[in-house]
Design brief:
It contains 7 helices and 24 strands. The strands form 8 sheets. It has a 5-stranded parallel sheet, covered by helices on one side. Strands 11-18-12-13-14 form a 5-stranded parallel sheet. Strand 6 and strand 7 form a beta hairpin. The radius of gyration is 21 Å and the shape is globular. The two termini are 41 Å apart.
């Protein structure tokens, strides 16, 4: 019997376990998934937790609940991968051999990469919301905060869910309006980019919303350090941004496991073929989700689309067939804009997000790059879809893994 091993039981790894459990010929293959954690977190929910829109129990469930019964779940810390020997070494010294390996170890914040960020004010006046602990601590802070300078900040790209920092700024505007204290809060959005988002067409729409909501933007800010004593961020040009409350997205990195294994780049992301999702160095290793270095958005929708295409390529690989160069970087993201509305963007490696309808050409019901109540409801509905369909490997009707051009107006970019 051959052995397929999946590293990581987060979004991407769990989806692959379910997809392959249903499609690989079971008598010939056994699947093991390895993760040291007990709980599965709905990471898009971290955005809503600080604003009391979601409760902790809405976004946390046991990992076992989503792993098929005949897939072995090994709860253990991984020390390293030995790809030349086709084995995974666990922290307790055990070794797990594989014929085929899927790396789905995700990405995590690294506040220690920026001088002073994880200093004396960490989770006091400097917060993240990219971890469960950070989002919960920020919720408690916002409940009693009396106002002042709120700074929402991105350290550097790439980050998980690139739209989330903007969403946080928009939701903060709405939150403080509902608390009748918006006039006591000055919101500043600080980014290393030259505009509000990574895609110019989306930036045009988002800049309008920033202006409308009186959210100041400081662009091209390359942070050097956080001064905890004076409560200010400093960049390499000498510019400073003062804060009373700093909500920052620290540097995102792949798992330290990749550094220990000699398989990652400078940020511990695994070099990956962007069309096939196969490791560029090892033919029997595939990479999915935030763990790869492909130039696609590090968002849950991307992992969902990758999983459908990677499942096909795994089946091609085990049959000795050529892999399909099919993944196009497709991303489909709701952007919360506050006050019960949201935008929807749809893009890939070569196409900018522009106006149109989704998922049905000319019909919708969702509109691209247009604020609407329907888009907001779609964002909230995604939590149910995530727990009940996406994680279980169920295809979402009418939504293709590759980007559909029907009913949309595109401009092409070059990758």
């Amino acid at each position: 019997m051959k052995h397929l091993v999946i590293l990581g039981a987060g979004t991407a790894g769990t989806m692959m376990a379910n997809h392959l459990h249903a499609t690989l010929h079971q008598p010939d293959w056994h699947i093991t998934i390895i993760d040291e954690r007990e709980k599965h977190y709905y990471q898009p929910g971290y955005l809503f937790l600080p604003f009391d829109i979601y409760e902790p129990e809405d976004i946390v469930k046991p990992i076992e609940q989503f792993i098929p019964k005949d897939v072995t779940l090994t709860k253990a810390k991984i020390e390293r991968i030995a790809p030349a020997e086709n084995k995974v070494v666990l922290a307790n010294g055990d070794e797990v051999s594989y014929d085929l390996l899927i790396i789905a170890t995700g990405a995590k914040i690294a506040p220690e990469e920026t001088t002073g960020m994880k200093g004396s004010e960490w989770h006091q006046s400097v917060f993240d919301f990219y971890t469960f602990e950070g989002a919960l601590a920020l919720r408690n802070k916002l409940r009693e905060w009396k106002g002042g300078k709120l700074v929402v900040h991105i350290t550097e790209m790439p980050i998980k869910c690139p739209v989330a920092p903007l969403e946080f700024a928009f939701l903060a505007d709405s939150y403080f309006k509902h608390k009748h204290m918006r006039d006591k809060v000055e919101i500043t959005f600080v980014t290393p980019l030259s505009g509000a988002f990574t895609k110019p067409k989306a930036t045009e729409a988002l800049q309008h919303l920033l202006d409308e909501k009186n959210i100041r933007i400081v662009s091209d800010f390359a942070i050097e350090s956080v001064d905890n004593d004076h409560k200010e961020m400093l960049d390499y040009s000498g510019q400073s941004v003062p804060f009373d409350l700093l909500v920052t997205v620290p540097t995102n990195k792949g798992d330290e496991l990749m550094e220990r294994s000699g398989m990652g780049d400078d940020l511990n992301y695994v070099p990956t073929n962007k069309a096939t999702l196969q490791s560029k160095e090892y033919a029997n290793v595939f990479v999915i989700g935030d763990a790869s270095n492909i130039p696609a958005s590090k968002a849950g929708s991307v992992a969902h689309f990758e999983a459908e295409i990677l499942t096909e390529n795994i089946l091609h690989y085990v049959k000795g067939e050529p892999l399909k160069e099919e993944f196009d970087g497709h991303a489909n993201c709701f952007i919360e804009t506050g006050n019960g509305k949201a935008l929807l963007i749809d893009f890939n490696y070569t196409h900018e997000p522009v106006e149109g309808s989704f998922p049905f050409p000319g019909v919708g019901p969702l509109r691209l790059l247009k604020e609407s109540r329907m888009n907001h409801l779609g964002k909230l509905a995604f939590k149910w879809i995530y727990w009940n369909m996406l994680l279980k490997g169920t295809h979402i009707p009418f939504v293709s893994a590759t980007m559909s051009e029907a009913g949309k107006h595109y401009e092409t970019t070059h990758q």
